[in-house]
Amino acid sequence: MKRITPLPTTATLATLSEADRQADPNWWRQAAVYQIYPRSFADSNGDGLGDIKGITAKVPYLQTLGIDAVWLSPFYPSALADGGYDVDDYRDVDPKLGTLADFDEMAKALHEAGIKLIADIVPNHSSNRHKWFLEALASPKGSPARERYIFRDGLGENGELPPSDWDSVFGGPAWERITEPDGTPGQWYMHIFAKEQPDLNWSNREVRDDFLKTLRFWSDRGVDGFRVDVAHALTKDLTEPLLSKLELTREGQLEDGFEDGSHPFWDRDDVHDIYAEWREVFNEYDPPRTAVAEAWVHATRRARYASPEGLGQAFNFDLLQANFDAGEFREIITRNLAEAKETGASSTWVFSNHDVVRHATRYGLPQGTGKHLAKQDGKAWLLAGAPAAELDVELGLRRARAATLLMLAVPGSAYLYQGEELGLQEVADIPDSERQDPAFFRNKGVEVGRDGCRVPLPWKVEGTSFGFGDGGAHLPQPDWFSKYAVEAQDGTDNSTLELYCKALKLRRELQSGEELEWLETGSPDILHFSRPGGWQSVTNFGDSAVDLPAGTVLLSSSPLQDGKLPANSTAWLR
Length: 574
Ligand code: GLC
Hints:
25% of the residues lie in helices and 14% in strands. The protein is of the alpha/beta class. The longest helix has 18 residues, at 326-343. The site of alpha-D-glucopyranose (GLC) has 10 residues, from loops.
């Protein structure tokens, strides 16, 4: 097995030629990765849905932005019961999005622009339209076709009750009853997410082998790495009697798993046997394919996913869940850098993705975090549990820009979500009739769901769907999208887009080593650190302007005030 050695601490990415950067097996360690949610990025054929050709047409934009890699959310055939995370066929492109030939063309264009490609892979569950699931429904109880999923008899006299009282992540029971081929009410299948997402049975060798085939299929087509969806859920211990909901929520750990790995379906120790096999496949390639786990597990157990013998990297969602607070940020950064050192992985940082309220909006709400906007008293600008308050758009954006600049200076890979480079806010007021997220429907509208961060991007200040395509947009775009459009920001001094472009370019030049040293600031509201080579970042989390340390200011997230760093701002110096 090839060992992955860290970059020499003195090498700066800027000293590597483009060809060396592409061939570098460590390219991912400090990469800026831009997440594309393909159905909402750019629509080339005017059907209201973003597509692969739309992405290819925007490669020059991505190149100017200065990212190192694209992470493509699912683009596979799907009925979109969960935004594409319900996959009908793991080795094809959704005909609504294009063809395999379009995919190859996109991969080539990205590579020619020096951009790597990371594909989202969804191993925990297929869709209920996958040929395996259709075969399971048509086959008798106990058949090999049923063994690819998790079927159980129901409880109660006639099997009319679900095998356990577990809830699915999107609300409602985690079991769905089927009708047997002879028309009688039958067995139940497990689905941790929507009922259209039946969980695969990872103790079945056939399932494991099929995924190895899928990994090779995309790696052979030039995919450089994989983002592994709910990586902590694959293996299950369903020894009966199944634990009750009450037992599973002990210490409030239902959604994460138990610290000792004994939860029946989250974060079990034996899940890593799967990733050890995947690693062997990744290492068949040169450079080895990379992987990053989406694993919402205890911080103490994350390292297992990030091991070089496993996936190699795991998302840490700590900053994404934190308040805009100097103390919280410092503790999270320190702890995660130390953890990364232990495993040999590099840290990952992220503020926004397709599952959470955009950070420009979170930071404009009263302190207190939450994954989703909730509706209360007719107002949608509320996080679950937060007191009623209006969104402060200006403050939110200001803090988001400061936080992002700080993140881009921290060692590790930075994950950016499409639209954050425009400073986009969450769209909170999507009419119920136009919502798509199963989380909204299964929770009977209590949870607004994730559609608000998935609204198609505005490219132009006016015109049909703000330049997203020649037709409409599959989720409604509000009028205020106009002022966030790429066209409005491109070349405009101090625009958020210009800030991202400058920061990403500078980051590539300044990045060296993986060390960070905290410097004394004398204030609990100011964070100051340096990186090898003299690169420094200062963030003022407080509410008044402060003096900057000595050095040349390279970039700041908001204009300096008489040479001082304003409140809610970050500056880079050397
Ligand atoms: C992950 C995805 C999310 C999806 C879920 C089920 O958490 O990020 O969008 O709904 O998995 O696949």
